[in-house]
Amino acid sequence: MKKTLVSGKVCGIVLKSNNPINFLGTVDKKTGIITDKNHDLFDKSIKDTILVFPSGVGSSVGAYTIYSIKSNNTAPLAMICQKADLTVATGCALSNIPLITISDEEFSSIENGMNISLDTDSPNPIQYQ
Fold this sequence. Notes:
By secondary structure, the protein is an alpha/beta fold. The protein is built from four helices and seven strands; from the N terminus they run E-E-H-E-H-E-H-E-H-E-E.
């Protein structure tokens, strides 16, 4: 079931990870590039993407990291998770980054590179282009 945590309306290209993201330890605040060599998005930029990932992990300071990447104009346009932890929800709320959670089935149907529009006010918030 979809649940809106931070509302918004955006269109963009999906950058999908099958691994949780620790924003504090994985994302460069100045560039938005994933710096963890063990992460499946290593060396990719989350800037201006619709970031799809299972959940966040790590310290509550990760919320500040999300706010920092937004302040540095290196943040994703929106985030879509299977489970939004407090760090991701707080960071997105502070930064006004749209955030929804989706079912495992829908998560599986979203692929890297897809062009989607996200409108949290719509009964079907994810539209595939």
